[in-house]
Amino acid sequence: MSKTTMTRRGVLKTGAVAGAGVALPTIFTASSAAAYTNEPTGSTVKFGFNVPQTGPYADEGMDELRAQELAIEHINGMGDGGALNTFSSKALGGDGVLGKKVEFVTGDTQTKSDAARASAKSMIEKDGVVMINGGSSSGVAVAVQGLCQEAGIIFMAGLTHSNDTTGKDRKANGFRHFFNAYMSAAALAPVLAKEYGTDRRAYHLTADYTWGWTQQESIAAATEAMGWETVNNVLTPLSATDFSSYIAPVLNSGADVLVLNHYGGNMVNSLTNAIQFGLRDKMVNGKQFEIVVPLYSELMAAGAGENIKGVYGSMNWNWQLQDEGTKAFVQSFGKKYGRPPSNSAQTCYAQTLLYADAVARAGSFNPCAVAEALEGFEFDGLGNGPTLYRADDHQCFKDVLVMKGRDNPTTEYDTLEVVEKTPVAQVTYAPDHAMFGGAEASLGTCNPGA
Amino acid sequence: MDAIILQILNGLDKGSAYALIALGLTLIFGTLGVVNFAHGALFMIGAFCAVTLSKILTISFETIDPTQKDFLGNPLVVKTPYVEAWFGPEFGAGLIDWAVPLSILFSIPIMIGIGFIMERGLIKHFYKREHADQILVTFGLAIVLQEVVKYFFGANPIPTGAPDALTGAFDFGTLLGFDPNTVIYPYWRLVYFFFAAAVIGGVFAFLQFTTFGMVVRAGMADRETVGLLGINIDRRFTIMFGIAAAVAGLAGVMYAPINSPNYHMGMDFLVLSFVVVVVGGMGSLPGAVAAGFLLGVLESFASMNEVKSLLPGIDQIIIYLVAIIILLTRPRGLMGRKGVMEE
Q: Is the pLDDT score of A30 beyond 60?
């Protein structure tokens, strides 16, 4: 006869352990029988698209979502196939991925790191997504990438341009197709030197957060290497709306170039204010005063209106390119939505296809198998020309576009023109480059979760 | 010296916007006793009145130009505004160019109407409620209004330029004996400053020199007694709400060329304007105007490199720092009535 002895203390202990187990986020406990987090078992698999659907970047997020939806259509064999027809890898057969139909859920990042993490977490835990894609901010990308690493799923970054995303904050589960601040600077600086000369004095206004800092560091280093002098760098609050008090000191600083390390609403307002102050009409040091905006986007160019005419910047991709991949994607997107895609849309479209293709090549949704398939992957036909997903830092290496505000746009969509396609060799750097965390930066190890 | 003059000028135009919004805010607080957190949204709606008129004036008919191609390779659809077809290309283009100043006339009835609807439809039900309730309901209203604007106009800023004749910058330096191009200031910001001064002067004159204004001022001083005299003070206060909405709207209309309007621009100004009202003194009209300009100028000086190098980050906190100091040392604000906010 067995005798069960239950003490008060024992019951409390057991209860505490059980309670802790229940309270543990399901992210760390779910499907313990599965080999990896959210292993798909049915006939469908879910992707998670985490984009800004509210807040100041909602239009950019909407364009990303359009492209992601289009990518899902193409993966599932609907529509005209878009850039899948021109993609160098033929692992996807237009019947979903590994025989599973792809579905998607969406989250709203609000362009806030905490909100983005919360929506990504919800999609992983409640919806069971196998990957997260999208976003319009480096702060958000770094935060969500960290979460995906912990959760054991793949993060295919959207628009994130800070060096840190694949620099000091790189992660084994995170991959970036978009270019970065270093690449912008490496592409822009020679063009600026050619157009404006090597004897220039630059004044920088810089958004006071991770992207702004790395953008300023990169463009200052690249232009200084061309002979330019950096007169001053003034950090401006991200919340600033009127930049007149930051622009006024530029007038008498002796600078003959203003570099606006701003993006989004900051860029629209600072550029508008600089034009209002007549900076581009001024002659300083015997030279015409110039303005440079290192990172352009089509939507922000539209927001700045006529003020961007003649202003140089850079982009990851533009719909006006004439390669077959671009043409296929633009035709497909344009027919469905009646407008050309933005470069944030293109990067999300490419990332979604690249993830699906990697799964197909790996033969598994296991994030570590997918990561292995993406590492060192060389491809073409998605619009950016020959591209390498470098294994060391999970950064894509491809040509970079130098852009200029068009003087006489014919429609609302061609406000920017492609000035130069900078070859990839010119924007390539060592994985342990000082601006990318140096030798200490590490991907860590892949986490399959579960 | 030239840098100081420039920052004073910058501060004056920033202060103009603060003063105009704060004037409406304090007018509503002084008359109705309501803390209206939807006031920033009225500023934003004013800016979108300018956007709307611009869009109305550029409503176009389409013709096909077979010699040009669109992004899909189809013949390009060329849009020509109806006003250019009806009134001739020159006059039509002129109308479109002057859309923002024309929006002043367009916006006044719209803003007064919105003010009436807001006050009669929602805010009057909260007169006797706690300030916290008023703040919550008006803040909620502000979010609803901005989401409505976002639904129709999108989240991206919409460029809305000043007339060509008023773009560019004026060389103040040459007037003051400095070298050319050392103290230059955008024409439109000067226009904004003088416009704000005219509106503020108009509101003060209306309250000071009209019978209506006299009754309103009497009502602000002692609502009960004015009511006992048989005057319908509520109706006059409703009209004042409409006027306050129009003032905020006009501030927004004229601000459209300074920064491209977007749906959340009202929120950017709301908190600052509340600080302006608190510093000036709740319910004090001259206080709101004086504090608006004062804080605008202080904010500009705090953005100077010399100041920022001494006190990093001061440009982000200066306004709140002043508010804290004022609240600690003089809770009723610079020109507030004795007893208000001092209980």
A: no
**Domains of chain B: total:** 1
Determine the Cα–Cα distance for residues B162 and A287; give it in Å rounded to an integer.
Answer: 28
Higher pLDDT, B284 or A362: A362
Phi, psi of B121 (to 5 degrees): -80, -30
Please answer whether residues B33 and B127 qualify as being in contact, where contact means their C-beta atoms are separated by less than 8 angstroms.
yes
Nearest Cβ partner for B268 among A241, A277, A282: A241
Nearest by CB: A246 against B169, B186, B303: B303
Q: Which residue of A has its CA nearest to B13?
A: A244
Residues 46 to 75 of B: which have CB under 8 A from any A CB?
Answer: 68, 70-72
Q: Which of A232, A248, A306 is the closest to B7 by Cβ?
A: A248
In order along its 343 residues, chain B shows pLDDT tens digits of 777 888 888 888 888 998 998 898 888 888 888 888 899 999 999 999 999 999 999 999 999 988 888 888 889 888 899 999 999 999 999 999 999 999 999 999 999 999 999 999 998 888 888 888 988 999 999 999 999 999 999 888 999 999 999 988 888 878 878 877 778 889 999 999 999 999 999 999 999 999 998 988 888 888 788 888 888 888 888 898 999 999 999 999 999 999 999 998 998 888 888 888 889 988 788 898 999 999 999 988 888 888 888 888 888 889 899 999 988 998 888 888 776 555 5
* Contact partners, residue A396, CB within 8 Å, separation at least 6: A176, A177, A178, A179, A384, A387, A388, A389, A390
Picking from A58, A245, A331, the nearest residue to B299 by CB comes out as A245
Please judge whether B303 and A282 are an interchain contact, meaning their C-beta atoms are less than 8 angstroms apart.
no
> What is the rounded average pLDDT for all residues in chain A?
91
Q: Nearest CA of chain B to the CA of A172: how many Å?
A: 34
Question: What's the CATH number where B171 sits?
Answer: 1.10.3470
**Interchain pair A268, B72: CB under 8 A:** no
Domain-embedded: residue B131: yes
B32 domain residue, yes or no: yes
CB contact under 8 A, B265 and A241: yes
Distance of CA A6 to the CA centre of its chain: 57
Q: Taken in order A335, A338, A342, A347, is the CA torsion positive or negative?
A: negative
Q: Where are the domains of chain A?
A: 44-179+319-398, 182-315
pLDDT at B331 (0 to 100): 85
Whole-angstrom distance, CA of residue A210 vs CA of residue A213: 5
β-pairing verdict for A396-397 and A387-389: antiparallel
Mutate to test the interface with B, among A204, A230, A244 (most CBs of B within 10 A): A244
- Is A8 or B217 the better-scoring residue by pLDDT? B217
Is there a domain that residue B165 lies in?
yes
Cβ contacts of B156 on chain A, cutoff 8 Å: 59-60, 299-300, 302-303
Task: Quickly count helices (H) and strands (E) in chain B.
Answer: 15, 4
Q: Which tens digit of pLDDT belongs to each residue from A163-175? A: 999 999 999 999 9
Structural domain includes residue B304: yes
Alpha carbons A444 and A168: distance in angstroms, whole number: 11
**CATH code matching the domain that covers A182-315, chosen among 3.40.50.720, 3.40.50.300, 3.90.1150.10, 3.40.50.2300:** 3.40.50.2300
Q: Provide the pLDDT for residue A12.
A: 46
The ipTM, to two decimals, is: 0.85
pTM: 0.86
B155 → closest Cβ in A58, A276, A307: A58
DSSP 3-state of A95: coil
CATH number of A44-179+319-398: 3.40.50.2300
Nearest CA in chain B to A234: B305
Instruction: Using CA coordinates, name the residue in chain A closest to B7.
Output: A245
Domain encompassing residue B223: 2-57+105-329
For A271, B84, B159, B167, the CA distances from B97, given in Å and listed in that order, are 21, 12, 13, 11
B185 contacts chain A (CB < 8 A) = yes
